[in-house]
Write a structure and sequence with these properties.
This protein has one helix and four strands, in the order H-E-E-E-E. It starts with 9 loop residues before the first helix and ends in a 16-residue tail after the last strand. It has one domain. By secondary structure, the chain is of the alpha+beta class. It has a four-stranded antiparallel β-sheet with strand order 1-2-3-4. Helices cover 45% and strands 20% of the residues.
Length: 138
């Protein structure tokens, strides 16, 4: 039998196989890194949601206490943490374990407790950069 010469040598097929294995290894490592990153993001999101709902439940308890105080004919500022803000307006803040605070404003005009503001905000004070570090445009 007549043998036909191969167009690709053994060296070229070995190099091709090495490139394929390296590429698959790279994709595997990238998939693993992405999975770890997604798991960390999921954990942070779950912690943040837990912190919000904990603060929300405590805020609703304070609103219920204010409502009970109004029903009993007592001023809402007798409830711990509730501060008067003006005529018929009161406010309180519930701290969260993730560095946020739930700020609630109430209007109690007419003996009815009505929530006017319910904001979940960062408790840390924002510190901006100095103006000299910003690009001013040439």
């Amino acid at each position: 039998m007549k043998q036909y010469p191969s167009r690709l040598g053994v060296g070229a097929s070995s190099i091709l196989l090495i490139i394929v294995v390296l590429t698959l290894t790279l994709f595997g490592v990238l998939a693993f890194i992405q999975a770890r990153s997604d798991a960390a993001l999921t954990d942070r999101t779950a912690l943040s949601a837990e912190a919000f709902y904990d603060a929300d439940a405590r805020a609703q308890q304070v609103v219920a206490l204010v409502d009970d105080a109004l029903a009993g004919g007592v001023l809402p500022d007798s409830v711990e943490g509730v501060l008067p803000q003006g005529e018929g307006a009161y406010a309180f803040s519930i701290g969260s374990f993730d560095g946020h605070a739930l700020n609630v404003s109430l209007d109690v005009a007419g003996g009815i407790c009505r929530i006017t503001s319910y904001r979940y905000e960062s408790a840390a004070e924002w510190v901006g950069e100095s103006e000299s570090t910003l690009w001013q445009g040439d």
